[in-house]
Amino acid sequence: MARPAARIPAMERRRQILAVATTLFARQGFQGTRTREISSKARVNEAILFRHFPSKEELYWAVLDEKCKARRGFAELQGLLHGGRPVPEVFAAIAKGLLHRNVEDASVLRLWLFSGLENHRLYRRFYRAYMADYYDLLAGYIRLQVRRGTFRAVNPFLAARGFLGMLLDYMLTHGVFHGPRNGKDNLSRVSREMAELWLEGMRPRTSRKPRTRNRIQ
């Protein structure tokens, strides 16, 4: 008599469902992926899937939540901003960390885009949980540098959006849209140059001396 198949522990089953859901959601989006397809590829029935995740929306959120927690982006940013490093090194390191994580795994970026395009509730939840504090922390550091005179007087939040937006453009171009990539590109060099470009616009404006006109003799 054949022995019954061993039952898979609940946590392992959950990880299995999340792994399949991550791949499908990142490739097809929220609307384009059916729970039936996820359960089929994860080799479970839908009843078991919904036992772990009450709704498709909660499953999508669990995928986002797990991926973001694994990246530890906020903790890394805290360490960089409070580590006492020179300002140019701080921003080059922030850029390198974000670009490197995206090169290693662009799925979070794709999931984030799909949530914004297809399910605004998920996007707002994602922004509150992971993006808002990140922006606020970086803006606080910029505000401190403005007070110290390192940066010119700017809106710290807009400046933070400008810096991260520049990096986001690079990540979208290469991680989502598969744009042309210079084979000689090096993440360290790209990160440093992007940081330098942004920092150049943040330097205090020096007072210009009035031009002297040649007098007609």
How would you explain this protein's 3D organization?
The chain has ten helices and no strands. The chain is mostly helical. The chain has two domains: 11-64, Homeodomain-like (Arc Repressor Mutant, subunit A); 72-200, Tetracycline Repressor, domain 2, CATH 1.10.357.10. Helix 1 (10-28) crosses helix 4 and helix 6 runs parallel beside helix 9 (156-176). The chain is elongated, with a radius of gyration of 23 Å. The termini are far apart.
User: Biggest sheet: strands, sense, closure?
Assistant: none
Ends distance: 116 Å
Strand content: under 5%
Oligomer: single chain
CATH class of the largest domain: Mainly Alpha
User: Structural class given helices, strands, pairing?
Assistant: mainly alpha
Q: Under the CATH scheme, which architecture of the largest domain would be assigned?
A: Orthogonal Bundle
Q: Radius of gyration, Cα only, in angstroms?
A: 23 Å
Q: What is the chain-wise order of helices and strands? A: HHHHHHHHHH
Number of domains: 2
CATH topology value of the largest domain: Tetracycline Repressor, domain 2
Quickly count the helices.
10
Q: What's the β-strand tally? A: 0
Taken from the alpha-carbon principal axes, the silhouette is elongated
Helix proportion range: over 70%
Mean pLDDT: 87
Low-confidence stretches: 1-6, 207-217
Determine the CATH superfamily of the largest domain. Tetracycline Repressor, domain 2
